[in-house]
Amino acid sequence: MITKEHFFLLPLRHDHSNGGQLEVFVRELVLSKNKDRADLPSLVFLQGGPGFQAGRPVTAESGWMKRALEEYRVFLLDQRGTGRSSPITHETLTMMKDPGEQAEYVSLMRADNIVKDCEEIRKLGQSFGGFCVLSYLSLAPQGLKEAIITGGLAPADPIFSPAAGRDGLAVYRATYDRVAARSEKFYLKYPQHVATVRQIVELLDKEPQRLPGGGVLTARRFLQLGLCLGSGSGFEHMHYLLEDPWLRSSDPSAGGKSFLKAVEDEMSYETNPLYAIAHETIYCSGVGASKWSAQRIMQERKDFDYKEKLRDPKGKIYFTAEHIFDWMYDDYLHLQGLKPVAALLASKQHWTKLYDKERLNACQVPTAAAVYYDDMYVERRLSEQTAQEIGCLPGAVPIKTWITNEYQHSAIRDDGYRVLDVLLGMLRGSKQIPS
Fold first, then answer.
1. Is the pLDDT assigned to residue 303 strictly greater than 50?
2. Side-chain half-sphere of 347: how many Cα atoms within 13 Å?
3. Which Gene3D superfamilies does UniProt cross-reference here (predicted)?
4. Cα–Cα 20 to 30 A to 47, which of 182, 203, 312, 410?
5. 310 contacts: CB under 8 Å, gap ≥ 6
6. Rounded to whole angstroms, how far apart are CA atoms 24 and 81?
7. 348-377: b or e for each residue (b if 16 or more CB lie within 10 Å)?
């Protein structure tokens, strides 16, 4: 495999309204035998997140990369604000003059501008990358030959817009239902951890622990570990984490450094702050603020009240998952200085439009999407509603959806070769899905 690195100096604002530029990094991959093929088509991978750089390839011998390189020149894009593309960090944000400037800058890191950065390039989009693909189909379909989405068929209505006539909290109501179900399944597989989690939560509720890198491990922060339960190996990962010998001691001073370090390393909010501060903005389009939506739903859900569960000797404490809370800007050391910008983004009413319903209805771009039946991060029922809107008009090209319970959201990592092979087969007619 041959690797090349490319840097592009692009406008910060593609409407050129206020100048400014940023650097965008793309890594090009091609098999040695194909390096001189000028006719080799391009595939651009749009990473999930938001706020994460593209993966760093070590080998081309497995997964979706192996399948893609058989017939494509692959480009791994570090989306603006991530990785080597003018990365947003705690340090770079705090160098700006005030929270208003920070909020304006972060608001330019969304799917519409990511699409404009890579216009006219073919792509495959995972998770949030799939949200970007929908924006691409809305804003610049002429740049696409085909599109593939894995676990990222987003709700295409502007769900945080009162004019949409929809409940802007539907996404988070659904994800809380999903993580409650995953918590129950985890406890069914590892019933001993009902007591383990209760022990940890009770200890941390009484005495939060200082983490090795700073910040504090509170009970509420510990429960965010549920983020891992939506992957194919998430249950086992959580099980091994909860095996730490320190957890068998009732004395928090007896050690526990390995456990605290492991918990600290689980979360990427401090190294990739866009994942926190821009997360709810991916659902904002047109007019309407997110207003800490996940937190507001949490307050409605008594089954997620760990204090209430502790009062019940048999209470199973549910984890949280891909939910952002204002208290994170207190518990996470390197988010503390970003609380004002997070608050501004949560209250921001006016956003660029991410999707064009008329263009999606009239879609002419062959598109295939994998939708995971029990997906904990992207609600399957909302994905199905979106699929009904893509190519639904006479003469348009309807999207082909593969709805499967064989995989969790992490399928592109867990069995990438097969997932991509099925989706490519759907586009070309060799895989009769849907039948």
1. yes
2. 9
3. alpha/beta hydrolase
4. 182
5. 198, 201, 202, 205, 317
6. 8
7. beebbbbbbeebbebbebbbbbbbbeebbb
CATH code given to domain 2-154+356-428: 3.40.50.1820
Do residues 415 and 233 touch, judged by C-beta distance below 8 A?
A: no
**Angle CA 64–68–69, to nearest 5:** 120
Sort 163 into a burial class: Cβ within 10 Å, 0-12 / 13-18 / 19+: exposed
Which string of DSSP letters, residue by residue, matches 237-267?
A: HHHHHTT-GGGG-S-GGG--HHHHHHHHHH-
Distance CA(23)–CA(220), nearest Å, equals 37
| Rg (alpha carbons) of the chain, rounded to whole number | 22
The rounded mean pLDDT for the chain is: 88
41 upstream amide cis, omega within 30 of 0: no
- Tens digits of residue pLDDT in 239-287: 999 987 566 665 555 557 888 999 999 999 999 999 999 999 988 888 8
d(CA 286, CA 45): 27
CA distances from 214 to 113, 207, 226, 244, 394 (A): 34, 16, 21, 21, 58
Q: Please tell me whether the overall predicted TM-score, pTM, comes out greater than 0.85 for this model.
A: yes
Nearest to 79 by CA among 274, 270, 269, 360: 274
Alpha-carbon separation of residue 198 from 52, 203, 298, 405, 407 (angstroms): 32, 8, 19, 30, 29
Q: Average the pLDDT over 207-233 and give the result.
A: 94
Strand, coil or helix: what is 67?
helix
CB atoms under 10 Å from CB of 312, counted, come to 10
Q: Helices 170-189 and 380-387 sit at what angle, rounded to 10 degrees?
A: 130
Buried residues in 52-76 as b, exposed as e (16+ CB within 10 A): bbbeeeeebeebbbbbbbeebbbbb
- Is pLDDT above 70 for 95? yes
What DSSP character marks residue 86? S
Domain-wise residue ranges, the chain = 2-154+356-428, 170-347
Handedness of CA 373, 320, 171, 354 (dihedral sign): negative
